[in-house]
Design goal:
Elements: H1 4-14, H2 21-27, H3 33-50, E1 54-59, E2 62-67, H4 72-79, H5 88-100, E3 103-104, H6 105-112, H7 117-125, E4 129-134, E5 142-146, H8 148-153, H9 165-190
Antiparallel strand pairs: 1-2, 3-5, 4-5
Length: 194
């Protein structure tokens, strides 16, 4: 095939979801997997070096064009809609599912200490979690896990990209420092000069 890189670029552009290497290999059946990998690496590098408005990223087990995060204020103006946000209850429930999956509702409720029926329904509606089966115990409760959309939304290649406990503690400490600095600035602004 003459211009493998251009064909791959067109396939990724035309795909509604991240396009997996295996799917590209199936479509380009006459091209060696190593040549496809090399073309993908070159494309990713070209888009990164270009520093344009979009980049090619590996997310959710595939490749997808994405806008650069620092350009989000302008993209939001174009879309002129408020991004869907998750309630704290939904975010906690999603975190538990992400880290403990596969997991049943009663286990999530045991961790959170409250009913999680509404957050689970919302997460299912948003397609961030899915039903992965039923547990082989009396009552056959539903087992939940995350989806590819979850990986896309949180910009993760796979579940191994989730921060570990140490990283979460560091992020939390950094957030607390920022909040403390902001609070101190607010206090000093309120004090009149004598």
């Amino acid at each position: 095939m003459e211009n493998v890189k251009a064909v791959i670029e067109a396939l990724i552009f035309a795909s509604d979801a991240p396009l997996a290497l295996e799917k590209i290999c199936i479509i380009l059946s006459g091209v060696e997997k190593s040549e496809i990998k090399e073309a993908l690496e070159k494309l990713v590098l070209e888009y990164n070096e270009r520093q344009g408005g979009i980049s090619l990223q590996e997310v959710a087990g595939g490749f997808q064009f994405r806008t650069r995060p620092e350009l989000s204020p302008w993209v939001k103006k174009l879309k002129s809609t408020k991004p869907h946000s998750l309630s704290p209850a939904a975010m906690e429930t999603l975190a538990i599912v992400a880290y403990k999956q596969p997991i049943v509702k009663s286990e999530i409720e045991s961790i959170r200490g409250v009913d999680v029926g509404a957050p689970l329904k919302g997460l299912l509606d948003k397609k961030l979690i899915r039903i992965v089966g039923r547990k082989d115990v009396p009552g056959k409760p539903i087992i939940y896990g995350t989806t590819r959309k979850f990986l896309e939304v949180f910009n993760l290649k796979d579940l191994l990209d989730l921060p570990n406990l140490r990283e979460l503690k560091e992020l939390n400490q950094q957030q607390e420092l920022v909040e403390q600095e902001i609070a101190e600035e607010d206090i000093t602004e309120d004090i009149p000069n004598l």
